[in-house]
Amino acid sequence: MRFVDETKIKVIAGDGGNGTVSFRREKYIPRGGPDGGDGGDGGSVFLIGSHDLNTLSDFRTVRTYTARPGTKGSGRNMTGKKGDDLFVQVPNGTLVYDENTGELIGDITEHEQTLLVAQGGFHGLGNTRFRSSVNRTPRQSTDGSEGERRELRLELKVLADVGLLGLPNAGKSTFIRAVSHAQPKVANYPFTTLHPNLGVVDVGSSQSFVIADIPGLIEGAAEGAGLGIQFLKHLSRTHILLHIVDIAPYDQIDPVESIQTILHELEKYNPEMLDEPRWLILNKTDLLPDKEAEAACDDIIKRLNWNGPCYRISAISKHGTQSLTFDIMTYLEEEKDNIKSANATLAAKDEAE
User: 109-153: per-residue pLDDT in tens?
Assistant: First the structure.
C-alpha cells in the first residue's frame, strides 16, 4: 500500500433543524395554545484514531465528509430528530490542522481517541418557546444555525518505538526485513525507500515493538534536498534512533563523514533530536574479512569518540540482529516502567497537596 503522509479534506457539519410555528387544534379546544416544537441539532464531524490504519491514502479518493442535518420541529411540541454524528477514522499519529488559519486543532495518538473537527448547527426554536403572559399566541420561530465548515490538513507522523537513521543505501531496508515481517523494497541504489515502512518485531511471548524504516537522508535534507524534511518529522516520535552505517560503502564514502552528515541535518532540523537515545549500528560486516571488519569498526568508534551503545551486524545474513532486538526490547520495557513510576510519583504528590 502506498504511504501517504499528508492530505487535505473538507468537513461539513449538519445544519440545525428549524423550529416550527404550530397551534393546538383539537375538538372542543378551538383556541389551543402554541405547540410548535424545536428543530434537531445538526450532526458533528469527529476524527477517531484507529490502529488498523497506517496511511492517509483513503483520503485521496474521498475529500469531503458531511454529517447529517437536524430535522425541522413539528406540532404537538415534537422536537426534530438530531442529525447523526459522523466519525471518520484516521491512523494513530495524525496531526490535524485548520488549512486556512494554520491552527493545530489536535493530535490523535491513541486508538479510538476522538477529536471534534466540525461542530453541528444548533436547533431552531419553535413558537412554544416564545409564549408569555403578554403574548399567548406567538407566531415566531427561529431557524437552526449552519453547521461548521472547515478545510483540514492531515499530517501523519509515524508512531514507532524505533526509527532507522542513515544515508541512502546504508542497509536500513535490509535490516527491517531481517528483524520483522515487513517487506520494503531493497536494491543497490539510493532512495530505494520512497515511503516510510513499519514493521512489528516479535521478540518473545507478548513482547514486540514497532520499527520504522525512514527514507535515507542526504546532505541538505533539512532544507528540502533529496526527499527533504517530509521524512525527518517521522523520527521525532521514536524512543530510540538506530543510526545504521555501511562500514564498506561501494562509493568509498568515509563512514565517519556519513555519520556526521546525518547529525548535521538532525541538528539543523531540530537540535533537541541530538539528545534523543541513539545507538550506532555498524552494518555490512560480512563484506570484509573478519579482521578487516573488526579494524574498520574500531576505527569508526575511535574517530567518533563513541561511548554509547554500539552493535556490529550483517543485516543481510541476520548476524548480530537477534541480540540487538533483545536489547532494544529490554530498553523499551525499562523506559516504560520508568515513565509509569514517574507518573505514579507525580500523582501521589498531587494527591498529597
Answer: 888 999 999 999 999 999 999 999 889 889 999 999 999 999 999
Residue range 162-345, CATH number:
3.40.50.300
pTM for the full predicted model: 0.63
- Residue closest to 226 by CA, chosen among 218, 234, 215: 218
Q: Which of 44, 157, 160 has its CA nearest to residue 95? A: 157
Gyration radius from the chain CA atoms = 29
Q: What topology does CATH give the domain 6-156? A: Spo0b-associated Gtp-binding Protein; Chain: A, (2.70.210)
Closest CA to 124 of 40, 43, 21, 67: 40
In this structure, what are the phi and psi dihedrals at residue 105, rounded to the nearest 5 degrees?
-80, -40
- 44 near 81, Cβ under 8 Å? no
Strands 64-66 and 6-12: parallel
Other beta carbons less than 10 A from residue 211's beta carbon: 26
For 33-61, the pLDDT digits (tens) are 899 999 999 999 999 998 877 778 778 78
